[in-house]
Amino acid sequence: MLRAPSSSPCIFCQIARSSTSTTLLHSDEKVVAFQDINPSAFRHYLVIPIEHIPTVKNLKRGAEDFALVSHMLDVGQTLLHRDAPSSKHYRFGFHQPPFNSVDHLHLHCLALPFIPSWKSIKYTSLGPLGGFIEAEKLLEKLKPFPPLASSM
Ligand SMILES: [Zn+2]
Ligand SMILES: [Zn+2]
């Protein structure tokens, strides 16, 4: 009997390769952006790396991952400032496992207000056990250590 393929195709990988009907709001050699299928705010976009990185837990401190996340945030900010210029509040961040819905890293980019307003709970960091980490906080964790001052 045939078994199902061991690695089921990841939906976000398919979107990143443009093999779905999802409209890409942005695409470059590192990331793509598209609308969340189930928006929780006035504008709600996702920015994902083209490379399959499962979750924030797979990111490492250092220049490479720092640059990737900074770029994701840049793209999200640019899109929201273009499409929701009159929003007063924006929020950018990631769900941490086990609170993430899809195991392919994705940055939630929200132009508030939340619709409906109780959705805000899903995108608010609630301390160390919180399921959501703001992009700025994640960048703080990934920031490369300054080069050691040479003592020789
Ligand atoms: Zn993937
Ligand atoms: Zn998520």
From TrEMBL:
Annotated Gene3D superfamilies: HIT-like
One of the record's GO molecular function terms: nucleotide binding
Domain of life: Eukaryota
Stored InterPro entries: Histidine_triad_HIT, HIT-like, HIT-like_sf
Intervals of motif Histidine triad motif: 104-108
Key words, A-Z: Hydrolase, Nucleotide-binding
Domain named HIT: residues: 11-123
Enzyme active site: H108
PANTHER family: ADENOSINE 5'-MONOPHOSPHORAMIDASE HINT3 (PTHR12486:SF5), APRATAXIN-RELATED (PTHR12486)
Protein name as catalogued: OLC1v1031837C1
Source organism per UniProt: Oldenlandia corymbosa var. corymbosa
